[in-house]
């Protein structure tokens, strides 16, 4: 099969390697679409050390082409999305169903080979069957959609909330759409890229702020003196983190989703604001994977995408073949603002 092999920092190539061989309790999936996550870029830039894997990628959907003899619930020909997190099932958090917080989890494309390849072998427990109303491109974004929904659940959004989305990348845009579905009375979108704000406009959002041209804190607080009920920090910037603190109302909530790559020093004014305003900070990692709704954001996200309530197609900015992986990663690494969701199609 063709696969994107990461040899070291900034060195990724499309090569032909043997197809995976499945065991009696595994399934082989022919990958139809795989998405590049923002977290794949720093992994590409720093290489795979200290983990022993070669293939990045954890957002994908495809068709089951081979089934182990002991697998009963999945059959050849099933259309599926792949859930990339593999919990140990034994630690205290796994025993109470908090699989995404597993002490010993493994994640495809980070500790074992991922989905930037023509085939991937998985456990049937990591597959979600797709209804006929959703295509492979839409299904490949189920993972970020589930993360976005989990973000709003962690931020305890309720109908009537004023919500601010700091950063309108793929997950930020999905957070905004879910906030609308969950009854937010007003949604502000803040970004520094006019292309991202144009996308927000196409999706029907009207409260748009280009932070390069105006101060989002002054604008939002002028129009909403008490501040926001929930701020989603999805930009991963020290600047937007500080702005989020000033934007939250007293006893407001901030969902911390963006990954900041440098050390963060919180100014005294911002720290005092957290204390004096009793602001609640919620860390967000991965997504909830509990077996039953409403705690499984994967199944809930699938429901809304399949019914057209969450718009996926406008978020896709580029499609490439896996043969182009070297040029694609180099380009994204040098100019991230140019891209939104990038897909490899097989």
Evaluate the radius of gyration. Answer: 20 Å
Give the N-to-C terminal Cα separation.
11 Å
Beta-strand share of residues: 25-35%
Structural class: alpha/beta
Number of helices: 11
Q: What would the principal axes of the Cα set say about the shape? A: globular
Q: What are the low-pLDDT stretches, counting only 5+ consecutive residues below 50?
A: none
- The H-and-E topology, N to C, reads as EEEHEEEHEEEHHEHEHEHEHEHEHEHE
> What value does the average pLDDT take?
95
The helicity comes to 25-40%
Describe it.
The chain is of the alpha/beta class and 346 residues long. Helices cover 28% and strands 26% of the residues. The strands form four sheets. Strands 3, 4, 5, 8, 9, 16 and 17 form a seven-stranded mixed beta sheet that branches. The chain has a six-stranded parallel beta sheet with strand order 12-11-10-13-14-15, sandwiched between helices. The model has no long low-confidence stretch (mean pLDDT 95).
Characteristic key phrases:
346 residues, 11 helices, seven-stranded mixed sheet, alpha/beta
Layout: helices, strands, pairs:
Blueprint (H helix, E strand, L loop, with lengths): L1 E7 L2 E6 L10 E10 L3 H7 L12 E9 L11 E4 L2 E2 L5 H4 L10 E2 L11 E4 L4 E3 L6 H5 L1 H13 L7 E5 L3 H12 L4 E6 L2 H9 L4 E4 L5 H8 L4 E6 L4 H10 E9 L11 H9 L3 E4 L13 H10 L9 E5 L4 H10 L6 E5 L1
Parallel strand pairs: 10-11, 10-13, 11-12, 13-14, 14-15, 16-17
Antiparallel strand pairs: 1-2, 3-4, 3-8, 3-17, 4-5, 5-9, 6-7
């Amino acid at each position: 099969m063709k696969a994107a092999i990461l040899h070291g920092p900034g060195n990724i190539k499309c090569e032909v390697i043997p197809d995976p061989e499945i065991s009696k309790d595994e399934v082989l999936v022919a990958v139809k679409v795989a998405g590049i996550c923002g977290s794949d870029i720093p992994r590409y830039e720093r290489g795979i050390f200290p983990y022993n894997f070669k293939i990045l990628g954890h957002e994908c959907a495809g068709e089951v082409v081979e089934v182990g003899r002991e697998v009963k619930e999945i059959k050849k020909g099933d259309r599926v999305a792949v859930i990339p997190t593999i919990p140990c099932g034994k630690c205290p958090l796994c025993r109470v169903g908090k699989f995404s917080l597993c002490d010993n989890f493994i994640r495809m494309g980070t500790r074992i080979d991922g989905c930037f390849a023509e085939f991937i072998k998985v456990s049937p427990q990591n597959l979600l069957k797709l209804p006929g109303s959703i295509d492979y491109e839409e299904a490949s974004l189920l993972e970020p959609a589930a993360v976005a929904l989990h973000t709003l659940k962690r931020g305890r959004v309720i109908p009537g909330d004023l919500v601010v989305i700091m950063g309108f990348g793929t997950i930020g845009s999905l957070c905004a759409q879910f906030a609308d579905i969950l009854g937010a009375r007003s949604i502000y979108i803040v970004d520094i890229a006019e292309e991202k704000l144009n996308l927000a406009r196409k999706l029907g959002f009207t409260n748009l702020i280009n932070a390069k041209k105006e101060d989002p804190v002054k604008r939002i607080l002028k129009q909403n003196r008490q501040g926001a009920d929930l701020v989603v920090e999805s930009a991963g910037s020290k600047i937007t983190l500080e702005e989020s603190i000033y934007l939250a109302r007293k006893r407001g909530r901030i969902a911390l989703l963006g990954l900041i790559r440098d050390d963060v020093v919180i100014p005294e004014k911002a720290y005092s604001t957290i204390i004096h305003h009793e602001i609640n900070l919620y860390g967000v990692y991965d997504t909830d994977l509990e077996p039953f709704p409403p705690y499984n954001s994967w199944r809930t996200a699938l429901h809304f995408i399949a019914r057209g309530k969450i718009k996926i197609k406008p978020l896709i900015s580029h499609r490439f073949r896996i043969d182009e992986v070297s040029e694609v990663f180099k380009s994204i690494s040098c100019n991230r603002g140019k891209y939104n969701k990038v897909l490899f199609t097989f």
